[in-house]
Design brief:
Helix content of chain A: over 70%
Shape of chain A: flat
Distance between the termini of chain B: 53 Å
Order of helices and strands of chain A: HHH
Strand content of chain B: under 5%
Structural class of chain B: mainly alpha
Helix content of chain B: over 70%
Largest sheet of chain B: none
Strand content of chain A: under 5%
Number of strands of chain B: 0
Largest sheet of chain A: none
Number of strands of chain A: 0
Number of helices of chain B: 4
Number of domains of chain A: 1
Number of domains of chain B: 1
Oligomer: heterodimer
Number of helices of chain A: 3
Distance between the termini of chain A: 42 Å
Radius of gyration of chain B: 18 Å
């Protein structure tokens, strides 16, 4: 079941990665990057479920917060500016 | 139980990715990511919290889920507002557009 979860996450990462590379606007790239962060956090959690080893779980909290700060900063950057 | 929740969460994340790839403009792609993947990630975190044994790990997972639920709507609001106001990013609102009236009003106030 966890292996199936990894497979779904890999497919999702390909979709988000395509959007990150293809753009076309800065918003789309932020969307792709946000999606990749979510895939990463999910993968960390699945790994912890698989091994029962929780050493990486605080990283999930940190990535969540850093992702929010990054999105907010880019939003301020886009405002009133072209693409 | 926990594993089934996590699998459902990854499925929702995949659906969000499909929406992000296939939708046609920036705002609808943001919509797909924000709704589907927030729920997806929270389901994965809940499944993890049900599965892991140590209380520290459970706390980390629940904290990450709570922070995600708090910050994701705020970030999406900031991003979509900036996208709407930015020149050069095509964005259409099909149904009711309440933001334009607000922006015009605040401009008339000199704000």
């Amino acid at each position: 079941m966890i292996a199936a979860g990894y497979a779904l996450l890999a497919l999702a990462a390909m979709g988000f990665g395509y959007r990150l590379l293809a753009g076309p606007s800065l918003t789309d790239r932020v969307v792709g990057l946000d999606g990749l962060l979510i895939v990463g956090v999910s993968a960390v959690v699945l790994r912890a479920m698989q091994t029962g080893e929780g050493a990486f779980l605080p990283a999930a909290v940190v990535v969540t917060l850093v992702g929010f700060v990054g999105t907010a900063v880019v939003a301020r950057f886009i405002e009133g500016r072209g693409r | 139980m926990g594993q089934a929740l996590a699998l459902a969460g990854t499925l929702l994340t995949l659906l969000a990715a499909v929406g992000v790839v296939r939708f046609t403009d920036a705002l609808s792609r943001m919509h797909a990511l924000t709704k589907a993947s927030t729920v997806g990630l929270v389901l994965v975190l809940l499944g993890g919290a049900l599965t892991v044994d140590h209380p520290n790990d459970k706390t980390s997972l629940l904290l990450a889920g709570a922070l995600q639920l708090l910050t994701m709507p705020v970030a999406a609001n900031l991003m979509s507002r900036a996208t709407y106001q930015a020149r050069g990013i095509p964005s259409t609102v099909d149904t009711i557009d309440e933001l334009t009236g607000h922006l015009d009003a605040s401009r008339d106030d000199g704000g």
